[in-house]
Design goal:
single chain, 326 residues, alpha/beta, serine acetyltransferase, domain 1, UDP N-Acetylglucosamine Acyltransferase, domain 1, 2 domains, five-stranded parallel sheet, 14 strands, 49% helix
């Protein structure tokens, strides 16, 4: 290929590229126009909105306070522990109060609500959350011990804190639940859905969960908004604590009512069990076997298992011999 041909080809390619790029303004016009349609969702307007990235950063900052020394590259000891907590708590207060303020202001402007002093409310909600962090650390301590006592594969508490997806999801839930209980909009759900995306464990921030809660393995666990779980409960992977399927009209009528089950103290639910309905109660110390489907209450001290299926054993050697002869 000579130089003149290469030069001509390059110019031709540039012209083709330019022709294609000239379509972009028309596409932009169509996208701008689509923002005027009611069936398209966007957030174009003067009202502010919380930042998902900032909320995830708040989660990370809170974990550094709840588990001091674990999730930082430097050492924490008695020499710098006051400085460490001072820096971390102050930074968390600033970030959290801003995002709460943005969430409140967003609802206020978008839904035409009366002014509620969103900046002051954001600061008050943030400081109230921080006041509860010592208690929250103690509660999470019971979850860590439950994981260690319930899992013989755990080599120690460090391994659980660093690596167990169940503890990550529970930690995130307990942070989000505190904010949800304070009436903070949007942020709690962003937090728990972030944990869901990382672990496969879906816990709604509105659920109520007692101390010493352990999720073993965890992938596929679903805990609905109005679920109530007592103390020392253990769940395995694939467990669903959900609501019965409803029509659109029924959904609207039950939106703020109890739709998910109640799990009392010391209950164990094995893998892939499904428990549905707001009136369903699993009684204290009951044990629910794997793959069980429950829509009725279970009395205390009851074991629920599927009838053992029949297993069929064949002689694989005979099959291989038969194939060789063919």
């Amino acid at each position: 290929m000579d130089e003149a041909f290469r030069t001509t080809k390059c110019r031709t390619d540039l012209i083709k590229t330019q022709n294609v790029r000239e379509e972009i303004p028309a596409i932009v016009d169509q996208l701008v126009f689509s923002c005027t349609r009611e069936d398209c969702f966007d957030h174009i307007g003067p009202e502010p909105i919380p930042s998902r990235a900032a909320v995830v950063d708040i989660l990370k900052r809170t974990r550094r306070i709840l588990y001091p020394g674990y999730f930082i590259p430097t050492r924490v000891d008695q020499v710098n522990v006051m400085y460490y907590f001072g820096q971390e708590v102050t930074a968390l207060f600033e970030a959290l109060s801003e995002q709460i303020m943005l969430a409140i202001r967003h609802d206020c402007i978008r839904y035409n609500q009366p002014c509620t002093d969103c900046e002051e409310r954001g600061q008050q909600a943030a400081i109230e959350f921080l006041r509860e962090t010592p208690q929250l650390r103690g509660l999470l301590g019971t979850d860590i011990r439950a994981a260690y006592e319930g899992d013989p594969a755990a080599s120690g508490y460090d391994e659980i804190i660093f690596s167990y997806p169940g503890l990550f999801a529970i930690t995130t839930y307990r942070i989000a639940h505190r904010l949800h209980h304070q009436g903070v909009p949007v942020l709690p759900r962003i937090m728990t859905e972030y944990a869901h995306s990382r672990t496969g464990i879906d816990i709604h921030p509105g659920a109520r969960i007692g101390e010493s809660f352990f999720i073993d393995h965890g992938t596929g666990v679903v805990i609905g908004e109005t679920t109530e779980i007592g103390s020392r409960v253990r769940l395995y992977q694939g467990v669903t604590l959900g609501a019965l399927s409803l029509s659109r009209e029924e959904c609207e009528a039950l939106r703020h009512k109890k739709r998910h089950p109640t799990i009392e103290d010391d209950v164990i639910i094995y893998a892939n069990a499904t428990v549905l309905g707001g009136e369903t109660v699993l009684g204290t110390r009951s044990v629910i076997g794997g793959n069980v489907w429950i829509t009725d209450s279970v009395p205390p001290d009851t074991e629920v298992f599927l009838k053992k299926p029949e297993l069929v054993f064949g002689n694989s050697d005979l099959k291989r011999t038969s194939r060789k002869r063919d």
